[in-house]
Amino acid sequence: MGNAFKAYDIRGIWEDELTPEMVYKVGFFLPQLLNCKTILVGHDIRLSSEEIYSLLKKGITDAGCDVLAIDKASTPMVYFSTVHFGVDASVQITASHNPKIYNGLKVSAKNAIPVGIDSGLGDLEKLVRNNEVIVKQVKGKVTEVDARTPYIAYLKQFVTDFSNLKLAVDCSNGMSSLIVKELLGDNVIYINDTFDGSFPNHEPNPLDPSTCKQLEKVVVDNKCDLGIIYDGDADRVMFVDEKGGYIFADISMAVLGINMLKDAPKGSKVVADIRTSRNTVSYLEKLGAEVLMWKVGHVNAKQKIRETGAIFGGELAGHYYFRDFFNCDSAAYA
């Protein structure tokens, strides 16, 4: 059995570090770990995701736990749906920005609280490795639900008028294609906007500036004001300026601060990872924020925002977290 249990999720090369047996057993033992009656499950469009989706659902139902199945979903859609449908836990099948040979599982508890190695994944690994599967006599049931419609409706309340801007959007052949046109409309230049789990045009990793070259050219050639590029599961987003210049995430975080802090009380908290530039911190402070420097990683950031009541937070990895989005990250919200 491979070694796919990481600090913040379960992830590895499919059928090597992450195996079918492991996925089934994760599904089987997760209800025991989190004391669940219902677990919501979604998946991205990687080539192995449908198989993992089936294995995970079988493991969960064999343990006597029900599954709320939402089929294709971005990771933020799963976070939203965890709260919206009031389930005990959720799993998103994705390897985020990793190459196509990878896949993984992002586990959240009730209210979309992330489960990391110190908050459950470590115990889950022991159960998966050491315990015998004894299928329950009364199995759980699978119920399919529409999560896309309520998720888009939720996000639309935050869409503002940008008709004066010419935008180019690179969906990286990933999950942002599921919702982005509903939010930004047709008067936008879209590239790589069809699902393809082989990621034929570039890796689904906008943190690597080389993956943005295609978008940068589109922005310059079409005289766009801004380029937007999502990762594979649409929880990260990066930006390109009107000259085709790559904008680092802490600069984007400073710009986000203009909107997020304009009506906020002075001293409102913002969480930034420890790699954030001093210029960004100073700019946010001038906007009236109290900036809390914190550990890297989505589990750590979400916990800090929840504990402190921070309005929003960001990481150099391109994650942006929002108190109004259940303290979770959403590229579409950003």
General description of the model:
The chain is an alpha/beta fold. The protein folds into three domains: 142 residues, Alpha-D-Glucose-1,6-Bisphosphate, subunit A, domain 3 (Alpha-D-Glucose-1,6-Bisphosphate, Chain A, domain 3, 3-Layer(aba) Sandwich); 89 residues, Alpha-D-Glucose-1,6-Bisphosphate, Chain A, domain 3, CATH 3.40.120.10; 72 residues, Alpha-D-Glucose-1,6-Bisphosphate, subunit A, domain 3 (Alpha-D-Glucose-1,6-Bisphosphate, Chain A, domain 3, 3-Layer(aba) Sandwich), CATH 3.40.120.10. It is 33% helix and 21% strand. The protein has a six-stranded mixed β-sheet, with helices on both faces. Helix 9 links the parallel strand 12 and strand 13. The protein is globular, with a radius of gyration of 20 Å.
Tags for this model:
single chain; 334 residues; alpha/beta; Alpha-D-Glucose-1,6-Bisphosphate, Chain A, domain 3; six-stranded mixed sheet; five-stranded mixed sheet; 16 strands; 21% strand
Query: What's the number of structural domains?
Result: 3
Give average pLDDT, whole number: 95
State the order of secondary-structure elements, H for helix, E for strand. EHEHEHEEHEHEHEHEEEHEHEHEEE
- So how many helices? 10
Q: Order of strands side by side in the largest beta sheet?
A: 1-5-4-2-3-6
Percent range of helical residues: 25-40%
In CATH, the architecture of the largest domain is 3-Layer(aba) Sandwich
Structural class: alpha/beta
* Radius of gyration based on Cα positions: 20 Å
List how many beta strands DSSP finds. Answer: 16
Biggest pleated sheet: 6 strands, mixed
| CATH C-level of the largest domain | Alpha Beta
CATH topology of the largest domain: Alpha-D-Glucose-1,6-Bisphosphate, Chain A, domain 3
Distance between the termini: 38 Å
Uncertain parts: none
Molecular shape: globular
Name the CATH superfamily classification of the largest domain: Alpha-D-Glucose-1,6-Bisphosphate, subunit A, domain 3
Please state roughly what percent of the residues sit in beta strands, choosing from under 5%, 5-15%, 15-25%, 25-35%, 35-45% or over 45%. 15-25%
